[in-house]
Amino acid sequence: MNSAELRTMNAQEFNNAGPVIVPQSFENIPRMSILFLLFSLTTCFSAYLILRWNKVKNYWAERGVPHSPPNPFLGSLTFMQRKNVGIWMREMYEQFKSPYIGIWLIWKPALIINDPDIARRILVKDNTIFRDRYLSSGSTDPIGGLNIFTINDPDWSNIRRKLTNLFTAAKLRFVQAFALVKAKELVQRVDRDRNKSLELKTLFVDYTTDVIGTFAFGLESNATLTSKGPLRKVTDDFMRFSVYRGLCWFSIFFWPDLVDIFRFSLFPKESTDYFKKIYLNIMDQRLKHPGSKQYKDLVDALIEIRKESEEKNQNYPDDLYLAQAAIVLLGGFDSTASALTYMTYELAHDSERQEKLYKELKEAESKSGANFDAQTLTDLTYLNCVFKEILRKYAPMGWLDRIASTDYNIDENLTIPAGTVIYVNAIGMHHDPKYFPEPYKFNPDRFLPENEGNIEPYTYMPFGDGPRVCIGQRFAYMSARTAAAQLFLKYKVKPIPGAPKPKDVKVESKGLFLGPGEPVYVEFIPRTECE
């Protein structure tokens, strides 16, 4: 059939002519093209990743910075979920005898600072360059992302300046009276339950929850005596670490790009929802009945900040005020409770220093009575030394993150570009024998007035330093000293049989703050039975 005949065929004849045979090779062309395209894209993408990875992994080597080879998937964060960040920082410090160490946050280069002089420049002298923190809780978590701990300038400066008045010595003297009431309840609790298993961290969390509840919200609760209460439910939820919670925290602190994608949050959602109801109810009552009672607490301070902001047309979102309330509670109860736990446990294993503390407390009692006021607590030299030593050994967050806003000369050999993440390794310096002889030994005497001059500046930073130093450090000292003074005045503590030594107590690996990773117990013996 030629082409002329084909053109004259009608439709019926064409249909009867049978199928048109298409060469087999033509059918395969589209499939082969797709496969070839996919292969080409995969090859190009793989080549890009290889080239990119080679550039990333050689970043610190090209700059002559000491480092360990990064993992292609996690960078330097291979310890995630297996080791506490503070412990890892300390080990990195001990591994590299260098003023700084190069690390990778997945594929992002970052720098650990191990030198006190460089730390001083970053935190104080050049703090305007290192004003902001790297951690971020993202736009999907306003309570976690808008608090004074995570927020950056200019909002940070405004909120910080307005909250500072809440932590003055005069305000803390007012709060200390409430802390004393709860400290006496703590003694009652120990007296009532000392023959039972009293887990130290739980005991002290009950106390700190009550004290912060009064200080921040004017709430009266009985968590110290009952381990229950509206805020105790919130702090209890916050203490429950899991693999998922650990992943949330790691992303917020070390890989913020993932936070909004997976909607991670700094605090458990159930806890924040419950806390929000409590806070809004308190705020509503205060606004409905202004001037009925002056609580002089955080809520009153936030009401004043809101009024001032509205007058200046600085309309902050409601979540910003809620975020400050949340961080005061959830950021303060755990660190103070951990410090009290470690202090009690260390003194239980060191009877000589415990007796030295008891002698100081008895002398103070004979002069001014057992209701130690703020000035008496300040004058308890050895008690203060004990707490300083506890915070040296067990700094709750022994590393300080910052971002360089411009290119910066670390020293004559290294310049970092803008956007580089910096970690000041406070816990590493806390355990350097060059600065603290026998660093793993519990020795409060190193902080005695006659010895404190031997401590090199910027080697001891349990609360950070510079403008972003922890705003609540005075409150933490006050609440911890108030509890410890009452407890050690009334009781002697001893280790229970078979208990691990302080150095052998496990550390929480899924969280970021340094705290016991296992239940901790001691034996409480009334001083009246020891005399």
Automatic annotation (TrEMBL):
<keyword id="KW-0472">Membrane</keyword>
<dbReference type="GO" id="GO:0016712">
    <property type="term" value="F:oxidoreductase activity, acting on paired donors, with incorporation or reduction of molecular oxygen, reduced flavin or flavoprotein as one donor, and incorporation of one atom of oxygen"/>
</dbReference>
<dbReference type="InterPro" id="IPR002403">
    <property type="entry name" value="Cyt_P450_E_grp-IV"/>
</dbReference>
<protein>
    <recommendedName>
        <fullName>unspecific monooxygenase</fullName>
        <ecNumber>1.14.14.1</ecNumber>
    </recommendedName>
</protein>
<keyword id="KW-0812">Transmembrane</keyword>
<comment type="function">
    <text>May be involved in the metabolism of insect hormones and in the breakdown of synthetic insecticides.</text>
</comment>
<keyword id="KW-0492">Microsome</keyword>
<comment type="similarity">
    <text>Belongs to the cytochrome P450 family.</text>
</comment>
<dbReference type="GO" id="GO:0005506">
    <property type="term" value="F:iron ion binding"/>
</dbReference>
<dbReference type="InterPro" id="IPR036396">
    <property type="entry name" value="Cyt_P450_sf"/>
</dbReference>
<keyword id="KW-0503">Monooxygenase</keyword>
<keyword id="KW-0256">Endoplasmic reticulum</keyword>
<dbReference type="GO" id="GO:0005789">
    <property type="term" value="C:endoplasmic reticulum membrane"/>
</dbReference>
<keyword id="KW-0408">Iron</keyword>
<keyword id="KW-0349">Heme</keyword>
<dbReference type="Pfam" id="PF00067">
    <property type="entry name" value="p450"/>
</dbReference>
<dbReference type="InterPro" id="IPR050476">
    <property type="entry name" value="Insect_CytP450_Detox"/>
</dbReference>
<feature type="binding site" description="axial binding residue">
    <location>
        <position position="470"/>
    </location>
    <ligand>
        <name>heme</name>
    </ligand>
</feature>
<feature type="transmembrane region" description="Helical">
    <location>
        <begin position="32"/>
        <end position="51"/>
    </location>
</feature>
<keyword id="KW-0479">Metal-binding</keyword>
<dbReference type="GO" id="GO:0020037">
    <property type="term" value="F:heme binding"/>
</dbReference>
<keyword id="KW-0560">Oxidoreductase</keyword>
<dbReference type="InterPro" id="IPR001128">
    <property type="entry name" value="Cyt_P450"/>
</dbReference>
<dbReference type="InterPro" id="IPR017972">
    <property type="entry name" value="Cyt_P450_CS"/>
</dbReference>
<keyword id="KW-1133">Transmembrane helix</keyword>
